[in-house]
Every structure is written in structure tokens, then in C-alpha cells.
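re: ur question from yesterday

yeah so i grabbed the chain u mentioned. its 205 aa long if i counted rite. heres the sequnce exactly as i have it in my notes:
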Amino acid sequence: MDQTKIGKFIAGCRKSRGLTQMQLAEKLNVTDRAVSKWETGKALPDVALMLELCDFFGITVNDLLCGEVVSMDQYNKELENNLLEVIRQKEEADKRMLKIEIVLGIISVLPLAAAAIIAVLVPMEEWKAGLMVGLSLLPLLIATPFAIKIEQKAGYYECGACGHRHVPRYGSVFMAMHMGRTRYMRCPECGKKSWQKKVIAKEEK
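ran it thru and got these C-alpha cells back, copy pasting raw so excuse formatting
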């Protein structure tokens, strides 16, 4: 998708209605800064706002994502291309999120590793060593729920029994036994428990 082209298209639709950015923003209940970002190609409207924006301008979502009104003979192909692009962008975003999870994990474990090394190498009273190690656990305890949330939302889990790919509930991921990002959970499709690996794509490529 060409965000610059989409932005110019939004601006053109707005001007054809004789609206300022502020007036359009008020009708959509957003800020004029948000409208400005759309029109300059710096950002796209959220999905819910896309539908409202398209309804307001009398265009389709496919028209919006193409940055022009699409003729019926081009519609199916353009729609397919736009859907593929949305999927690609989601997969790239999920990959970035999973990298952030790794960084978060490393950063939260470092204080614990450092405290353990110091406790072994530096002579000190047992209670002091215990307190130091205990305090060093805090970053890990704080970071763990956020890391699991990232892992739950980014990509999918693939059932080891039937191959179904799904996004489980946070509680299922949090409570599941795991080896790395592979977790032992129940599949919502076949109902069986299995070791489910993390994958990025919804379908096999």
C-alpha cells in the first residue's frame, strides 16, 4: 500500500466535500493532527475509523487502500492485493513484537544473573545475599506478564494434533507448560491438548 497516495486520496475526498481538516476531525471524533497524519501519509486510520471514513465519503475500503476509486473489473484483483499487503504488514509487526519480547527477557534476567554472580564471588552475610537476589527478581517478575502478553498476541499457536492455528486467551498461555515459545495447551478446534509451537502466519505458505 502506498500511504502517500492514500493520504492524497483522503485529502481529495475531504476537499471535494468542502471540509477543513478540523471539520473532518470533528465529524469522526478525532484530532485534526490525526487527519493531518493520514493526509501526509505518515499514518493510516485505525480499522474502525476506516469503515466510518469510507461510509462518510461514500467509498469502499478497497478504494481507500488503493488511494483511488477502483473500477469493478479491477476490484477483485486490487482487493486481493490489499488483503495480502495487510497480512504481510501484520506478520512484520508480529516479528518485531517477538524480537521486543526477547530483548525484554534478556534485560529482565540480567539483574538476577549479576546478583547471583556477586553473591557467589563477594563475601557477605547470607541475609544480604538473599535480599540482593530477591530484589533482582523484581524486574523479571514485572516483565514476565508483559512478555507473555506480547507472545500471546503476536502470531499464532499451531496445534500439534490437528495443525489448526489460533490465538489463545492470555490465561491459557500464562498457565501453560512451555519450552521456549512452544506451549502445552488445548486446541479450540479439535479439543485435544498438545505441544503448540508459535508461528507467524495464519496459514501455511
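noticed a couple things. DSSP finds nine helices and five strands in the chain. also The beta strands are 156-158, 165-166, 177-179, 182-186, 193-199.
anyway ttyl
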